[in-house]
Amino acid sequence: MAELLTPSRLLAHRLSVGVDLSRGDIDALAQAADRIHTFRRGETLAEQGRRGGIWLLSEGWALRQKILRDGRRQITSIMLPGELTEKGPVLPVSFGHSIVVATDFAIAQEFDRTKLMHLTETNPTIMRGFFVEELIQRAMLEERNAVLGRMYADERLAFLLYETYARLHAMGMVQHQSYDMPLSQGEVADLVGMSPVHVNRTLQSLRARGLVEWSGHQVRLPDPAELARLAQVSPDFVSIVMEFGERAGRLRDERGASEGAPN
C-alpha cells in the first residue's frame, strides 16, 4: 500500500473526490505536514472545548465522542485513516467533542495550521477539495441522524458496518470484502444507540441472513450491495465509494510496480 498510505497521499486521495489534484498540489500538502507521532489506546488526539493541533490519522482508529457535564459519554462517529481531526481546518472554532484513540496504537501526522490555512487561501483547487470533503461529511452526519432516529435495529447495524466498509474501501483498505474491526461490541452499541445485548442479537440475525461474517476483530461482508440496500444507503454514495476504491487500488498497484522495477 506504500505511497498511497503516506499521510499526504492519504489526504490528497481523500480530497480528490471533488477535484483533480496535480502533483504540485500533492507536494504542497506534503509541505504543510509536520511531525509524525505514535499514540496509544485511550490517548487523546483532540480535547473537547480546546483548539489544538490538526492531526491526520494514517494508521489506527479513533472515536469522536461528546462528554456531558455529568461525565456521561456518547460516541458520535469513527475516525479512520486519511481523516483530519478537524473537519473544517480553516474554521476558527474549538472542538465540540474529543477524539480518543480506539486501537492499541495509532500513527498521526500533525499539519501546521498556518501553512494549511495559507495553502487553502492561495490554492483554489485544494480549497475546493476541503469544501467538497466538508459537504460529504455533513451529508454523512445527516444519514447517521436518520439511522439513530428512525431505523430499526438491523438497519442501524447494517448501516454502521456498510458505512465503515465503504469509507475504508474508498481509501484502499479493504481486502476480499474484509476489514479489521477493533471496536468492542459496547463501543458499537454506543455508536448505533443500542445495548450490547441488542447489538449481539441483531448481529446474529445479520449472520443468519448471510450478510455479515464477524470473527474476532475481522468483519467480512459477503454481499456489500445487499447490506447497503438493507441499510437504505444512497446509490450515489455507493457509486462514489466503488469508484474511489478502484482508484485507490490502481494507485496501490502502480506504486507496487514502481517499487518492484529494477533500477
Summarize the structure in words.
Strand 9 and strand 10 form a beta hairpin. A 4-stranded antiparallel sheet has the order 2-6-4-5. With 263 residues, the chain is of the alpha+beta class. The radius of gyration is 18 Å and the shape is globular. It has helices at residues 7-15, 23-31, 113-122, 124-150, 153-170, 185-192, 196-208, 224-230, 235-260; strands at 33-40, 44-46, 54-59, 62-67, 73-79, 98-101, 105-111, 178-180, 213-215, 218-220. The protein has 9 helices and 10 strands.
Topology at a glance:
Layout: H1 7-15, H2 23-31, E1 33-40, E2 44-46, E3 54-59, E4 62-67, E5 73-79, E6 98-101, E7 105-111, H3 113-122, H4 124-150, H5 153-170, E8 178-180, H6 185-192, H7 196-208, E9 213-215, E10 218-220, H8 224-230, H9 235-260
What is this entry, summarized?
The protein is 48% helix and 19% strand. It is α+β, with helices and mostly antiparallel strands and 263 residues long.
